[in-house]
């Protein structure tokens, strides 16, 4: 019920401010998601076809100048290859997400993992933690609302 109310409020505000929220969602879905899919699919295929050893083992950070990608997971392939990406990023992230860690740890790990789709961890590490904390508190407050709803 709370989410329905929130959705109605957002739509009402959006109507009064000239459909800016709708335009933003449209841009995200039509432009940004297409770029994300293109980079996740096409760039690794191109890299595998032209530089198979770099694709597997990495070691060529200069390829980022010639084969551009905004997706940091794809950029990591130039540095550490698919094998390194799996061993050093995806496996630890997956292990932390399924382990018996606190929800705080899982939330921060999830935001960190999602941020690597577009941002380099070396350039914006503080922003990742800040964004993770905001989403963590939002998630906890929504969860607390649901918990109170079920306990009453």
Distance between the termini: 15 Å
* Basic shape: flat
Q: Give the DSSP E fraction (strand runs of 2 or more residues).
A: under 5%
Proportion of helical residues: over 70%
Any chance you could write out the topology, listing elements then pairs?
Layout: H1 2-16, H2 20-50, H3 52-57, H4 72-98, H5 103-115, H6 125-151
Helix pairs in contact: 4-5, 5-6
Summary, kept brief:
The chain is mostly helical and 152 residues long. 78% of the residues lie in helices and 0% in strands.
Please provide a written account of the structure.
The protein has 152 residues and is mostly helical. The chain is flat, with a radius of gyration of 20 Å. The chain has helices spanning 2-16, 20-50, 52-57, 72-98, 103-115, 125-151. It is built from six helices and no strands. It has two domains: 1-80, no CATH class; 100-152. Helix 4 (72-98) runs antiparallel to helix 5 (103-115).
Features:
flat, 78% helix, mainly alpha
